[in-house]
């Protein structure tokens, strides 16, 4: 393994432009055949829409649990037994993490508001949660590495928003059961609607409904290329959180950074996926060399070494820049999912950071702190979409309704102006509607 070292003087250098282009193309399926994936997913969506639960059962038997039988719903007794089966320490950790996440998301809540004009008109915006949300929680290595954090990060902002009904779908293990830690997390969050089904067929069930699973208004949660494509295709029928790609981290560092820590943080993302991207941008040649050596050494120690190596070989980079201003410009152009500021004065750098899913300040804020425990959501925009998108949040599960209470004085005073605009657009009935009140 060798993480390439690039010496870039300006974001407009040919080498920099080639890097930006390469990273932008990283989200394509491994086989390069995105249209084939979309065609497969369209067929799955149509099948579930047509045949409902039978299509879910057949595909679950084919891909996850050969002997699974309906119903797909997990009973309340199973949820309670799972919570009782884990240790007190494990329950405490889940509850504490949930508390941190809930506190952060409580601060995100928007309020309805109204303004009153001198003529007596009242205008405003009413904030309401959606009625029903669907959460996709990946199974993780056949259900043997339960993604508890994904459950917490999806459910808690929906609960804070005030969503009354939350349905969770997650792939079952080969024996048709769900990991007890996943069920325990649901129980501790007071979620009582969990289904043993995953993949793009579960997204179809959430969007269109089946005999057992009622349709939802918003779908949130990460997944593989097939799940992500399904979310893209049902968007419009339902709301979705985002179209997320492979994980990524960018560390912006100066000579004050600890090379071993930086390497460990880069590997924390590289181990996710062979398409994951881990990049260091630094002003220090010495740090660049030390991080490269630390990556070589540390990757060999990881259980997922093959995945991390492939990630670093294909999508990793150590970029030397002449100063922090060039480093910041490079970082903003990449717009990473996770950005760590490992500089001597990260708060001085922060105002210049315009595009990142989440920013981790200083060397005691490694990315995994945010993934699990600090409180901000870890479902973040990837593939440069941080330029226009934001993390999953309370707002993902809310909608805004405009309120117009025009006074007789306002409508009368402006009727002719409104009618003029309506007639310019060829809408005579609009004009007459207002003129009747003028």
* Unreliable segments of 5+ consecutive residues: none
CATH class of the largest domain: Alpha Beta
Largest sheet: 6 strands, parallel
Total E-strand runs: 14
Number of domain units: 3
Shape: globular
The overall pLDDT, averaged over residues, is 95
Assembly state here? single chain
How much of the polypeptide forms β-strand, as a percent range? Answer: 15-25%
Structural category is alpha/beta
Can you say what the CATH homologous superfamily of the largest domain is? Nitrogenase molybdenum iron protein domain
Kindly describe this structure.
The chain is globular. With 438 residues, it is an alpha/beta fold. Strand 5, helix 7 (180-188) and strand 6 form a beta-alpha-beta unit. It has 17 helices and 14 strands. The protein has helices spanning 14-24, 34-51, 53-63, 76-85, 88-106, 148-161, 180-188, 199-208, 225-234, 259-270, 285-299, 305-315, 324-334, 346-349, 367-372, 408-424, 428-435, and strands at 5-7, 113-116, 122-129, 132-136, 165-170, 194-196, 218-220, 239-240, 248-253, 277-282, 317-320, 338-342, 358-361, 398-405. The strands form three sheets. The chain has a six-stranded parallel beta sheet, with helices on both faces. Strands 6-5-4-7-8 form a five-stranded parallel beta sheet, sandwiched between helices. The chain folds into three domains: 5-27 and 245-374, Nitrogenase molybdenum iron protein domain (Rossmann fold), CATH 3.40.50.1980; 34-112 and 128-240, Rossmann fold (3-Layer(aba) Sandwich); 406-435, no CATH class.
């Amino acid at each position: 393994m060798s993480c390439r070292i690039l010496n870039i003087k300006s974001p407009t250098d040919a080498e920099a432009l080639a890097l930006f282009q390469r990273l932008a193309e990283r989200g394509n399926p491994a086989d390069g055949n995105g249209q084939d994936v979309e065609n497969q997913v369209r067929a799955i969506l149509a099948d579930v829409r047509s045949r409902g639960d039978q299509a879910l059962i057949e595909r679950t038997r084919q891909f996850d649990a050969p002997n699974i039988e309906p119903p797909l719903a997990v009973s309340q007794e199973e949820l309670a037994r799972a919570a009782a089966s884990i240790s007190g320490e494990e329950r405490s950790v889940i509850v504490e993490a949930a508390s941190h996440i809930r506190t952060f998301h409580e601060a995100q809540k928007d309020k309805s508001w109204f303004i009153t004009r001198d003529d007596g008109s009242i205008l405003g915006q009413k904030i309401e949660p959606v009625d029903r949300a669907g959460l996709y929680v990946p199974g993780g290595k056949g259900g043997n590495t339960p993604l508890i954090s994904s459950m917490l990060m999806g459910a808690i902002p929906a609960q804070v928003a005030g969503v009354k009904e939350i349905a969770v779908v997650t792939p079952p293990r080969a024996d048709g059961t769900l990991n007890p830690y996943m069920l325990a997390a649901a129980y501790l969050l007071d979620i009582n609607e969990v289904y043993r089904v995953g993949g793009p067929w579960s997204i179809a069930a959430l969007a269109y409904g089946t005999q057992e699973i009622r349709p939802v208004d918003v779908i949130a949660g990460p997944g593989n290329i097939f799940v992500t494509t399904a979310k893209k295709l049902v968007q419009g029928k339902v709301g979705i959180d985002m179209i997320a790609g492979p994980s990524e981290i960018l560390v912006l560092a100066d000579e004050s950074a600890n090379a071993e820590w930086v390497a460990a943080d880069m590997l924390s993302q590289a181990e996710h996926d062979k398409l994951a991207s881990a990049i260091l941008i630094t002003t220090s040649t010495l740090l660049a060399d030390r991080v490269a050596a630390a990556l070589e050494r540390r990757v060999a120690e990881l259980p997922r070494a093959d995945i991390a190596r492939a990630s670093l070989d294909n999508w990793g980079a150590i970029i030397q820049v002449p100063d922090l201003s060039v480093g910041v410009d490079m970082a903003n152009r990449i717009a990473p999912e996770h950005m760590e500021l490992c500089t001597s004065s990260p708060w001085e750098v922060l105002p210049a950071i315009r595009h990142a899913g989440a920013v981790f300040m200083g060397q005691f804020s490694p990315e995994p702190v945010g993934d699990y425990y600090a409180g901000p959501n870890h479902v973040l925009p990837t593939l440069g979409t941080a330029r226009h998108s934001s993390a999953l949040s309370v707002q993902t599960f809310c909608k805004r309704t405009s309120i117009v209470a025009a006074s007789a004085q306002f409508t009368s005073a402006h009727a002719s102006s409104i009618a003029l605009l309506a007639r310019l657009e060829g809408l005579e009935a609009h004009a007459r509607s207002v003129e009747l009140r003028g």
